[in-house]
Amino acid sequence: MAKVEFPEFIYPDAHCIAGVDEVGRGPLVGAVVTAAVILDPNNPIAGLTDSKKLTEKKRTALSEEIKEKALAWTIARAEADEIDELNILHATMLAMKRAVAHLSMQPDFVLIDGNRCPELPMPSQAVVKGDLRVAEISAASILAKVARDNEMAELDKIYPEFGFAKHKGYPTKLHFEMLAKYGPTPQHRKSFKPVKKALGIE
Hints:
The protein is an alpha/beta fold. It has eight helices and seven strands. It has helices spanning about 55-70, 80-85, 90-100, 130-135, 135-160, 165, 175-180, 195-200, and strands spanning about 5, 10, 15-25, 30-40, 70-80, 110-115, 125. A hairpin with a 2-residue loop joins strand 1 and strand 2 (about 10). The protein starts with a strand and ends with a helix. About 45% of the residues are buried. The model is unreliable at about 1-5 (pLDDT under 50).
């Protein structure tokens, strides 16, 4: 069995490690999207890093390469109504649990980007700035970012006036202006303060 060493832990029995990351905690609209990835040590992928540090073109290319080369990968989500019901933190944890649960092979150790882990049936470790430091988490961040950006591009076709393809649902000046002018879409997170304001339920 491979000995896995990382500054925050030593877990000598880990031989199948998954990385998990999320995209979309801050936007006012749409799902929070998570991904889980188990990389193949015999089929390395060059250029993995935090998805936010890559161009859209590079992210898209890496996303396809990850799907081709990884031993297992999955994308999961928590929808806007689940975010409203649970709050964004708990909805993110739920989406991460779903991502791990839907992997085609079960990892024996999970590395989670950030400072807390969802409840999982196997050991896990939170890694601050994990998307920069751990290849598996970098890969997950890329898959989640590409998936969510594509969803925002699709939503942009339905509501072109909102400019979702540009700002991806984040709270920008344009987004605030369109919220005030048109009101929230069904995909908006009604528990988020700017959306509440647009609904007149501050």
